[in-house]
Amino acid sequence: DWSQKPSNTLWLAYLNGVPAGYVHCRVEEIRGRRKFFHLLYELTDPDMGQSKVAVVPRCRRRGVGKALLRTTLEHFRDRGVEIATAYAYDYNEAA
């Protein structure tokens, strides 16, 4: 179960006490010639909708996604991650 692994993290966002979105991911330390961190997003069941980062449609354009990503980046910066990239599918106009 992904929720039992200490490297996995889930954040929920609320607007006025109502769930507005979530982000879930994990960071793994991989050793080779250099020490680096690899940011991975956990998959959810397809029936649960968008995985990784999601914002309830009525809560979009209100800074929820931005706040979730900022929290994620701060979390990983605190763990030594120096570079992060984010991707959105070209058909995902909300992103």
What does this structure look like?
It is a single chain. The protein has 95 residues and is of the alpha+beta class. It has one domain: Gcn5-related N-acetyltransferase (GNAT) (Aminopeptidase, 3-Layer(aba) Sandwich). Helix content is 15%, strand content 33%. Strands 1, 2, 3 and 4 form a four-stranded antiparallel β-sheet that branches. The chain is globular, with a radius of gyration of 14 Å.
In summary, what is this structure?
The protein is of the alpha+beta class and 95 residues long. It is built from 1 helix and 4 strands, in the order E-E-E-E-H. The model is unreliable at 45-50 (pLDDT under 50).
Average pLDDT, rounded to a whole number, is 75
Strand count = 4
- The CATH homologous superfamily name equals Gcn5-related N-acetyltransferase (GNAT)
Shape: globular
Uncertain spans: 45-50
Distance from first to last alpha carbon? 28 Å
What structural category characterises the helix and strand content?
alpha+beta
Computed CA radius of gyration, to the nearest angstrom = 14 Å
What is the N-to-C succession of helices and strands? EEEEH
Helix fraction, binned, reads 10-25%
Compute the number of structural domains: 1
For this entry, give a set of tags.
4 strands, 33% strand, four-stranded antiparallel beta sheet, globular, single chain, alpha+beta, 95 residues, Aminopeptidase
Task: Provide the fold topology.
Layout: E1 8-15, E2 18-31, E3 35-40, E4 53-55, H1 64-77
Antiparallel strand pairs: 1-2, 2-3, 2-4
